[in-house]
Design a protein that fits this description.
The protein has 6 helices and 16 strands. By secondary structure, the protein is α/β, with parallel strands linked by helices. It has an 8-stranded mixed beta sheet with strand order 2-6-7-8-9-11-10-13, with helices on one face. Helix 5 packs across helix 6.
């Protein structure tokens, strides 16, 4: 059974021996849709409530080894869809990347995505993970990066897919690999952080991100940012990404807009950090325990291979974590008299697990 704070770790870490493999960067394909890459969710869910929204979030779900972990997560999400009704019933799943492993070819999508999710009754949106975008160097056909992801998630119209086999799931109509999902109370800004281990976001996407933050603020919505590579992590496999920290901090500074919630995957566990800005606390949450077999433990403070002694990690505190069970988030957004409330619950899977494992809430005053 997972337990909170089994060691006294309270800060994110940098992995001291990590190799930053920026040579793995892959050029981003042309956008399937039109700038500014925004999709109104009501094109797909026209009867969505104006004052309440609930949705699932999971990352790093793919993999063919030990598929029972992915199945346990999906089964619990399906159960929530069946047992709840009205505005409390989830309306969609937002995937934080690594839909398939180890490379993003079309051949992996049936076994790792379409078949496992055949009974999940809701639309699925996604940002690409590093494995979704990587290309097998031994592939004789040399498919381009994100070719299959585009077919599945970034189609120009929703239609049946050969890749989906007998599952009946259709393609999605996301306008780009980085894009904004517009809902009545919140904008979900999805970034694409490419293939390298610690991510890579180029100037064109950074400029777009700054504009997206400004637009969402003007629209007076809650701002949720999703990216695959975690800016902050305490795990022993990846640790924190200095590149993603720079993107998040730099864009917020230039836009003069701080997001309300940041969600990421890449690390195969659950971690909830709080980052303290002047007058505002922002949860940075890792939710990458969505089904891939191997989980990533949190680093012991005595381990010399990991350091939290950096000013880049100041003002960021680890509040809770689960590194020995798979799971997913359920996010709720509601409009109150004083503004918007964003709440989150993290559910673990397995026998006799506490449900939910973690809770958080964000009060966003009227902008």
């Amino acid at each position: 059974m997972p337990s909170t704070q089994r060691n006294p770790r309270t800060r994110p870490v940098f992995k001291l021996s990590a190799v930053d493999d920026q040579e793995k960067f892959k050029p981003v394909p042309p956008a399937p849709g039109k700038y500014s890459y925004r999709l109104d969710i009501k094109h797909l869910i026209p009867d969505l409530a104006e004052n309440e929204l609930t949705f699932h979030v999971a990352g790093d779900t793919g993999g063919t080894r030990s598929p029972e972990y992915q199945k346990s997560v999906i089964d619990e999400m399906i159960l929530q869809c069946r047992e709840t009704s009205g505005s409390k019933r989830p309306q969609f799943l937002f995937h934080l990347g690594d839909v398939v492993y180890n490379f993003g070819q079309a051949s992996g999508y049936y076994d790792q995505f379409f078949n496992p999710y055949r009974d999940y009754p809701l639309p699925i949106f996604a940002i690409p993970g590093n494995h979704d975008a990587d290309v097998n160097p031994l592939d004789k056909d040399q498919h381009r990066s994100l070719e299959a992801f585009e077919v599945v998630f970034c189609d120009t119209e929703s239609r049946p897919l050969k890749l989906a086999g007998d599952t009946g799931r259709k393609s999605n109509i996301q306008p780009n690999f980085f894009w904004v999902l517009e809902t009545p109370m919140a904008d979900i800004i999805g970034l694409y952080s490419n293939v390298p281990k610690f991510g890579n976001i180029q100037k064109d996407q950074r400029d777009w991100f700054i504009d997206a933050l400004k637009t969402s603020a003007v629209n007076k919505k809650a701002i949720i940012v999703c990216l695959h590579h975690a800016p902050y992590s305490s795990d022993i496999n990846h640790g924190s990404s200095i590149h993603m920290q720079a993107i998040m901090d730099g864009a917020a500074r230039e836009a003069k807009v701080i997001p309300d919630l940041v969600l990421s995957g890449h690390v195969h566990n659950y971690q909830r950090f709080h980052k303290y800005y002047p007058g505002k606390t922002v949860p940075f949450i890792v939710a990458g325990g969505g089904g891939y077999a191997d989980l990533h433990p949190v680093a012991d403070p005595a381990d010399p291979n990991f350091s939290d002694d950096s000013c880049l990690l100041d003002g960021v505190e680890l509040q809770n974590y689960c590194d020995d069970a798979h799971g997913f988030l359920k996010i709720g957004i509601s409009k109150k008299a004083g503004g918007i409330v964003v709440s989150g619950e993290y559910y673990t899977t397995g026998i006799n697990q506490p449900q939910p494992f973690d809770r958080f809430s964000i009060n966003i005053p009227k902008r």
